[in-house]
Design goal:
Elements: E1 5-9, E2 16-18, E3 28-30, H1 34-38, H2 42-45, E4 49-53, H3 65-78, E5 84-88, H4 94-104, E6 105-106, E7 112-115, H5 128-140, E8 152-156, E9 159-162, E10 167-168, E11 177-178, E12 186-188, E13 192-194, E14 208-209, E15 217-221, H6 228-237, E16 243-248, H7 258-269, E17 273-278, H8 294-298, E18 302-303, H9 309-322, H10 326-333, E19 343-352, E20 356-364, E21 374-382, E22 392-401, E23 414-420, E24 428-431, H11 433-442, E25 445-456, E26 459-468
Parallel strand pairs: 1-4, 1-5, 5-7, 7-8, 15-16, 16-17, 17-18
Antiparallel strand pairs: 2-3, 6-14, 8-9, 9-12, 10-11, 12-13, 19-26, 20-25, 21-24, 21-26, 22-23, 22-25
Helix pairs in contact: 3-4, 4-9, 6-7, 9-10
Length: 469
């Protein structure tokens, strides 16, 4: 049956029919089977499909992790029998389901196309027929002369979107979904064009599913006037929360007052993973690169980069279900798994608490950025202090690779700072974007050297890298 597409109906507007045959004014109800859905649309009879329907059907607003597991299991049990899959789904939580499935369906090499409609298929001005027919064609790929799309997607109106990049942005317009931080994968017009360079590459390993999800997470959106004491009361009274999606302003900005930061420290001290994403529709959260975000970073908050709220939630549930190691969850939240984010974030930390004039450490450059896809890099020194009172100290911070790099001097591989007794305990933050990029292109290791003209306590040195996925 590799010439067929399996349609999986979970529920939603697209599968609603009139309760009285021939009466277009009668109330709508969920269809009982495929015949009821397709009977007035002969074009659907000409498409090579099989049909599976949830029993009972699930209203989009009632969609839950256990339903995602069931969808994944249905796909797994039928994976080798069909060319691709079309999932009929209500629009309200479609992006959540698309995001969750993208993490659960491992080594996916077939299309899973999720679609729905704003108006039921039986209505004369419905958007459902075009959405459904095009979704079937995309799922059928080469059978319909269309390029293979080996990932979980949403097709709505004329646009094919990566599932974990999608958001519902309009409750009425037929263009109901968008992909704020990633281009569309395809556009449907007289022809259906798929953008090959935007697709996830086919995997070599065997397909399988990972269905252990932990939904012990909440989303908190900050706002002017938010009382930190309210947050603390929540986390004092609820003992089983494991993860928090914190929606902040702009590029990840949040209140810097001590009361708010103390509450964030209290939350992370309980082993709760806190992910910082922006409230803005479009944008990226980068922490540790600028002074405004260092307090949250010090409190253990993780950059959510350009994850959508739906993808951030699904990814956190997936990782918490995969491991009980909160540090591993934090690390993996910063690294792309299946195309859900544009950047990877790496932190390398070294501590030296004995007085010394020189402090140095090295680390292996992640293979993902060895080709020079590094975007930003910064050295941050915190908890710098003196053993004996000094008037001033000259500090030099330099980077080098493990091999000779021609013309390295022009990339500003060394920066100098002057400290005195009044500001010795203030953090040092230095950007080395061009230099670190050059080293990543030419070397396998990066060495960070800190030198002072007097012995000081270096405290914590953190090297942060943001790189394209």
């Amino acid at each position: 049956m590799l010439d067929k597409v399996l349609i999986i109906n979970t529920g939603g507007t697209i599968g609603m029919v009139h309760s009285e045959k021939g009466n277009n004014m009668s109330p709508l109800r969920p269809a009982e089977n495929w015949d009821e859905i397709a009977k007035e649309h002969p074009v659907l009879d000409g498409l090579a499909t099989d049909y599976y329907q949830f029993d009972p059907l699930v209203d989009s607003s009632d969609m839950a992790p256990e339903n995602w597991v069931k969808i994944a299991e249905v796909i797994e049990s039928n994976y080798n029998e069909y060319r691709g899959f079309v999932l009929l789904h209500g629009t309200d939580t479609m992006s959540y389901t698309a995001s969750a499935l993208s993490f659960m369906l491992k080594n996916l090499n077939k299309p899973v196309i999720i679609t729905g409609s704003q108006v039921p298929l039986q209505k004369s001005r419905s958007d459902a027929l075009q959405n459904l027919v095009t979704a079937i064609h995309i799922a059928g790929n080469e059978f319909y002369g269309i390029r293979l799309v080996p990932e979980v997607c949403i097709f709505f109106r004329d646009t094919l979107l990566r599932g974990n990049r999608s958001r519902k942005n309009d409750a009425r317009n037929y263009f109901g979904f968008s992909s704020p931080n990633y281009p569309a994968l395809g556009e449907a017009g007289a022809e259906l064009g798929i953008k090959k360079n935007k697709l996830i590459k086919k995997r070599e390993d065997n397909f399988h599913i990972e269905t252990a999800l932990d939904s012990s997470v909440i989303i908190i959106e900050i706002f002017p006037g938010l009382k930190p004491s309210y947050l603390k009361n929540i986390f004092e009274s609820i003992v089983d929360v494991k993860g928090v999606i914190l929606k902040t302003y702009g590029n990840g900005n949040a209140p810097t007052n001590n009361e708010f930061i103390d509450v964030i420290n209290f939350i992370t001290s309980k082993g709760i993973v806190v992910i910082n994403i922006t409230q803005c529709t479009t944008g990226t959260v980068k922490m540790g690169m600028y002074e405004a975000s260092t307090k949250l970073a010090d409190a253990g908050v993780v950059s959510g980069l350009d994850l959508t709220p739906e993808a951030a939630l699904a990814k956190l549930m997936y990782l918490l279900g995969k491991t009980s190691d909160s540090e591993e969850v934090r690390r993996l939240m910063s690294i792309d798994i299946c195309g859900e984010q544009t950047l990877n974030h790496y932190n390398f930390k070294f501590s030296q608490n004995n007085p010394a004039k020189v402090c140095n450490f090295s680390f292996t450059i992640p293979k993902e950025i060895a080709g020079g896809d590094l975007i930003e890099a910064a050295v941050r020194i915190k908890k710098l202090s003196q053993q004996n009172e000094i008037d001033r100290v000259n500090i030099a911070v330099s980077l080098e690779g493990d091999g000779f790099i021609e013309n390295m001097d022009k990339f500003q591989s060394k920066q100098n700072i002057l400290k005195n007794k009044e500001n010795i305990d203030e953090d040092i933050l230095l950007n080395f974007n061009k230099c670190a990029k050059k080293i990543a292109e030419e070397s396998k290791e990066m060495r960070v050297t800190l030198e002072a003209d007097k012995a000081i306590i270096w405290g914590d040195v953190i090297f942060s890298i943001y790189a394209e996925c």
